[in-house]
Amino acid sequence: PIQPAIVSWLSGLDPDSVNRVLNQVSWTWANSDPKGFASFLATVGPDEIPSFTDSLLMREWVRIDPANALTWASTLPQSQALTVGGEGFSQWQLSQPDAATAWLNSLPVSDPRRQTFAKR
């Protein structure tokens, strides 16, 4: 996991610097500590996050903890949540179809992910 001192240092940088650092460390951070990375991303503005970061985080996280990865994706803005979540759900469905389908079927009928992800 990324050390708290590094997270503290990163939090103190200006938005452009955060973006540049994340361009360099996103894959490593997403791979080693996806939950911690998601927590950090929730503390910064969208202009500080490289465009590929959410999809990268989802790809890494869904391999080890699909339900929590999809819960995280649902906290993103809705259009982004459905896109990133859909990518993760598709990946999960390929590797564990029964578990992914059971999770999808457990969503409330009113949850927009249910219809969107079922089409994948």
Structure description:
Helix 4 runs antiparallel to helix 5 (66-73) and helix 4 (53-64) runs parallel beside helix 6. With 120 residues, the protein is mostly helical. The chain has helices at residues 4-11, 15-32, 34-41, 53-64, 66-73, 78-95, 97-106, 112-118. The radius of gyration is 15 Å and the shape is elongated.
Strand percent estimate? under 5%
Total beta-strand segments: 0
Poorly predicted ranges (pLDDT <50, ≥5 residues)? Answer: none
Relative helix content: over 70%
Q: Describe the largest sheet.
A: none
Alpha-beta classification: mainly alpha
The N- and C-terminal alpha carbons lie at a distance of 33 Å
Give the topology:
Blueprint: H1 4-11, H2 15-32, H3 34-41, H4 53-64, H5 66-73, H6 78-95, H7 97-106, H8 112-118
Helix pairs in contact: 2-3, 2-4, 3-4, 4-5, 4-6, 5-6, 6-7, 6-8
What's the short version?
The chain has 120 residues and is mostly helical.
For this entry, give a set of tags.
single chain, 120 residues, mainly alpha, 8 helices, 0% strand
